[in-house]
Amino acid sequence: MKIDAQIFESLVEDYQQRVEAALDQWLPPADVNPVRLHQAMRYAVLAPGKRVRPILVYATAATLGLDLKKVDGAASAVEIIHAYSLIHDDLPAMDDDDLRRGRPTCHRKFDEATAILAGDALQALAFYIISHDPDMTADASARLQMIENLSLFSGSRGMAGGQAIDLAAVGKTLNIAELETMHIHKTGALIRTCVQLAAFSTNGLDERYFAALDSYAKFIGLSFQVQDDILDVTGDTATLGKTQGSDSAHNKPTYPSIIGLDASIEKTRELHRNALQALSIFGEEADILRYISAWFIERKN
């Protein structure tokens, strides 16, 4: 299907609604004990959001001609991992933020102990989904590969490791290579996982196509975070849904603080060009992924 801006917006909305329905089914009901914990889990996951990571799972699946039902579980799992990471990132011991997705952060709405437990429980739920969703691939080795990659890229060699680097960098001067390493781990790793989970759901995918998708994911994972750095400078709290200038207030190194705002904007454009080049092996079936790369660097929140 040929993609234009209107079709892209419609697909994004469809993907958002699809994953939200799946998330609602996988999350424990709010009236089941322990009630407060389950309420906190649902509060964090079902808060209004862009659902960037599930959209990327679905878009990759669509590019590969997969029935989207086969990746509902993967899309839910990565969004739940992302939600758990936001709960923990917002805690006083980490970024100490009061606002997330336009609402009080989980520890402000509930309390710190409940927020920590909600994050812990969500992380466990993500792996439960991958291992139990009956609609995902019947290939046990493919599921095992998904679990391996999701655990690797959300752990110390991925997202959690990136957050550790981020915390250690507060008040310090990083060079651009060090900052890029932090972003590749903190944000890029999970975005890369989204593409890989859809690819693993495809039986017998040619290694050339897997490599092209993985390369694309690396470029857009970094561009997404560079744009976040830019929006911390140029955005506003109401549009962002989180506190504008938070990185500057916490004296965190960012692309604009190291290379300047204009050079940071050019960096996103360069990464977008590289992402498009990585997809050159595909035809128009990958247009949805091309639009996502542009969306990442043009977004305002």
Instruction: Let me know the average pLDDT.
Output: 92
Q: In which range does the helix fraction lie? A: 55-70%
Radius of gyration: 18 Å
CATH architecture: Orthogonal Bundle
Q: Classify the secondary structure makeup into a structural class.
A: mainly alpha
How many β strands by DSSP? Answer: 2
The profile of the biggest β sheet is: 2 strands, antiparallel
Pattern of helices and strands: HHHHEEHHHHHHHHHHH
Q: How would you sum up the global shape?
A: globular
Any descriptors?
globular; mainly alpha; 2 strands; single chain; 15 helices; 301 residues; two-stranded antiparallel ribbon; Farnesyl Diphosphate Synthase
If you had to describe this structure to a student in words, what would you say it looks like?
With 301 residues, the chain is mainly alpha-helical. The chain has a single domain (5-298), classed as Farnesyl Diphosphate Synthase (Orthogonal Bundle). The protein contains 15 helices and two strands. It has helices at 5-26, 35-45, 52-63, 72-89, 106-109, 112-132, 140-154, 159-169, 176-200, 207-234, 237-240, 246-249, 255-259, 261-278, 287-298; strands at 99-100, 103-104. It has a two-stranded antiparallel ribbon. The longest helix is centred in the last third of the chain and has 28 residues, at 207-234. It is globular, with a radius of gyration of 18 Å. The relative contact order is 0.12. The model has no long low-confidence stretch (mean pLDDT 92).
